[in-house]
Design goal:
Length: 234
């Protein structure tokens, strides 16, 4: 859980910095840094998808997994659920922060910090192998991005630390239960699908798209399942 606690701390520190100096940091500078973070996220996603050790049928597995996972995500209304949670937080802080700003900050930050595959893969690595490297890398990105987000979106960004703690901590603890069934091939499929989500998330950060990346999350469950099925019938 060390990587999770470090990530939570960086979100708190970064957003606190942003709130403290939000009037002193030009919005154009904050937007420029967020674009750079988006490009870095894009690089990480592409790097995760390109692996010479992946078998030739990996693209087909990812396509099937993403289609099934996205369909399930939309049926489960995951994106809407996160927005509903943001609305709940908004009603609690409306008097002090202003209409809509808390929910917007909470939802945006929660997506940026938790929807990407760095969270899922990093948490699994931390739980299964005790390797916090990816979570530490993610924490550094979140330190900067949380400060920049807080400049324009306010205290809702800081409150997202609760979502980070519950989401990532749950994945780390759950990874121990899944260890017997997570073969190398199944993990590779999850990494590839997760990296594709990182690419999608990077487009949102840069502002190119407004993809509902949260609805893609079930693909991380379908990816190993499709892998096992492929190995069974191949």
């Amino acid at each position: 859980m060390l990587g999770v606690f470090v990530n939570v701390l960086t979100v708190l520190v970064g957003s606190s910095f942003g709130l403290l100096f939000r009037k002193a940091i030009p919005e154009k500078m904050a937007a420029g840094i967020m674009n750079v973070l988006g490009l870095c996220t894009l690089y990480i996603g592409i790097d995760g998808m390109i692996n010479e050790d992946f078998p030739g049928h990996m693209p087909l597995i990812i396509i099937i997994s993403m289609v099934l996972g996205t369909a399930a995500g939309f049926l489960m209304h995951i994106h809407e659920g996160i927005n509903a949670l943001g609305d709940l937080v908004e009603r609690r802080f409306t008097k002090s922060e202003g209409q809509g700003s808390v929910a917007r900050g909470f939802v945006t930050a929660s997506l940026v910090f938790c929807v990407g595959a760095m969270t899922v893969v990093g948490s699994l690595q931390a739980g299964l192998e005790g390797d916090n490297t990816l979570l530490f890398t993610k924490s550094l990105l979140d330190l900067i991005s949380s400060s920049m987000l807080a400049v324009s979106l306010g205290i809702g960004v800081m409150l997202s630390f609760l979502f980070v703690l519950v989401f990532q901590g749950g994945l780390v603890l759950l990874s121990g239960v899944l260890q017997p069934i997570l073969t190398d091939g199944a993990i590779d499929a999850m990494v590839c699908a997760g990296s594709l989500m990182i690419v999608a998330l990077s487009f949102n950060i840069i502002g190119i798209t407004k993809l509902k990346v949260a609805n893609y999350l079930p693909a991380l469950v379908f990816a190993p399942a499709v892998w096992w099925l492929w190995e069974l019938i191949a």
